[in-house]
Amino acid sequence: MSTSLAEAAVIGVCMDDVKAYWKVADILTPADFGHRGYAAVFGEIRDRALSGAPVDMFVIADERPELREVMTGEPMAQAWRRGSLRAYAESVQKAAVTRRIRKAGNLIAHLDGDDVMGEAQRLIGACSARVDGGMRHISDFGRMSFLALEERMKATGDLTGVPTGLPELDNLTGGFQPCDLIIVAATPSVGKTAFALQVSRTAAEHAKKEATGKHVGIFSLEMSGQQLNDRMVSSAGRFDGKLLRTPKRMDESDWARWTEGTTIITGLPILIDDHSGITIDVLCARVRQCHAATPFSIIVIDYLQLITPPKAATHALAIGEITRTLKNLAK
User: Fold this and answer.
1) What is the distance of C-alpha 28 from the center of its chain?
2) Which residue, 194, 211, 192, 201, is CA-closest to 164?
3) Which of these is catalytic: 63, 69, 210, 222?
4) Model-level pTM greater than 0.90?
């Protein structure tokens, strides 16, 4: 079915059935219509449905003379099937996404400035369908819960999520669970990064031991990848990391522990991105790209406030937008 016919079909069914609009309201807006006339008519149908006014071709034609020609054309005279309304609407939506992608492509080709990647990601993100999914019967989620329960039953011991290496915390949480967004907050220099690295190492060791094929992703916006490596090696090798700055002071036992720590860390499935000043859009894009090729069990970001904030009225609103985006990424 051509795009114009699909749009005509949606309009035709909506004007023939007073309840039809609500069957497609979750996936269509007037902006999704390529035909300006059909977009105007659908906007009128939406406004009437929202206000409780009758959605009728003759009433609309009488009150909106400028729409008469559109509503009385040949495509509108077809006997569209009510049962196919959803298929008509999905066809319109698909065509709308295609148009937006082509338009975004033209805009991306002419981008310039300091944040070309971030702006490109925003343009691509705006191309997706306006609304995704909808309300579902609770039994659907019951089946999902049962399948998740089965997976947890297969776990070794009581731990069902990603281990943190802290027994008391693992007992409380069962490990960090899928879809969780965990924010570690504390005053400066009390061990937030040390905690994050402990979790990263433990999660990576668990993934390696269980042969899950998953990796741990670390975005370090403050420290370099080399600095992270040194901290993890000193922790794994159980020696004072400050000695790595003055290696001439290291004795034979220190070098042995350094070798042990290096062997442990280099064998773990850990990926690090230490680029600073990236936007939340770029960060999400990199996570999705890597995850598609190499699935992650957990993503660690150190730290949230160093992400380049989106444009917002206040810093608090910018941080709120970042955390919302990260929660969506986690889900």
Assistant:
1) 22
2) 201
3) 222
4) no
